[in-house]
Amino acid sequence: MTSVSCQEAFKCWWKSWFEGPEALLLGSTGLMTFFGMTLPSSGPSRAVFWAVFVPATIWALIKKAPRLTPLKNAAFLWATLIILFAITSITWSGPTTHHQMTKALSHGIQTLIFLTGLTFGLSANTEQRVRFAKAIILSCIVGAITNIIVFYSSNPLSARLDGMFLLQIATIGPTVLMGAALSAITIMEVDHARARVGWTTATLLMLFVFVLLTQSRGPLISLAVFSLLCLSVHLGMKKTLAICSLVVVATVFFIFINTDLRQSWCDHFYGSPMGSRHIIWQESLKGFFNKPILGHGVATIFDQTRTGTTLSDLVREHIPHPHGLPFYVLFSMGLVGAILQIGYFLTILFSAIKLKGDSKKITLAALVCVVLMTSTDMHAIAKSVGYIWWLYWMPMLTLACPPHRSSYLEDARKVSVSSVQNER
Fold this sequence. Notes:
Layout: H1 6-16, H2 21-38, H3 43-64, H4 74-88, H5 98-121, H6 126-152, H7 172-187, H8 193-214, H9 217-235, H10 237-256, H11 259-270, H12 277-290, H13 306-315, H14 325-354, H15 357-375, H16 387-400, H17 408-423
Helix pairs in contact: 1-17, 2-3, 2-5, 2-6, 3-5, 4-5, 4-14, 4-16, 5-16, 6-7, 6-8, 7-8, 7-15, 7-16, 8-9, 9-10, 9-15, 12-13, 12-14, 14-15, 14-16, 15-16
């Protein structure tokens, strides 16, 4: 067999990023993720979306028109129905404003474009997907470190870390990073075992530090469950329990040696174990029963509805949304939206069950993590373009797209054989 030089392998690797719309879609998604997690402005991310991602999606549609890859993906079809119904619900939304309706329509269309392009991108070969996963993981790590350094350069260690520059909400930051990391870790299941374990462990440790500093209980519980399930597949239950125990002991010790940090955590957990979530959920359900079939519409301004004003009076705090994806879906999209959401989740669950070996276990663990993540917050679907891409659509579609195995080294060997033959 003809050997492959490093130069030839590198050329094939470099060219594979630009060969076909699938590679370009994955590359631009990775770039949007990096910009979204590290820059205080959404401008660069949106520029990449309109200048690269949208043209690549159109290219994919033209190239694949006869056999339309996304239409073969059941999860994509369910997601499309959810977005189209959300866009339609704008017509019966209220109270609302013209700006709010235009914004919801624009975000719905952009999300639909993103779903289409991402589904094309995830049909790329294994090596392209693995490179995409590594780029996403690096984006998560750099984003977490950047935010930690910037925030704590002017705040005490006991302060609750605001999740991201752009969002300035503590619970959104960790779930954004976790959503992106879930996509990456799931894709990494098709890579070599040793590299997979290293990348996965590094990601989970960095996420743990970041989520711990945000003091957000929902994401922390979700991450703990996923880490336990994921590492037990890679390392076995005994090693996983030993590592997790060591991390817990080190964390508790670190918290207790810092008086301010210890007091902050004690106040956070014991002072308000459930907060006002149960009141918000109860009132959101009452709002759902007022319009149970189609809901209030995604363009409805929640805090201006009877439910929203009642909640603000009860908890003496401004409540902009129902604080949980299930409750948001019921309130804004009614039973129809809830059925579409359930169908979407079940499709992904059945896709995961069909997998074999470790990939099946990791995918199911990631699905559990996403469900836990979105159950107490992260309510937006069509009306919030940006962080919702990494948090919700990207992980979920990734779980629904099975790996495709092919090797750019095989392409390099073909190039090498062809060049040798030409020389002869």
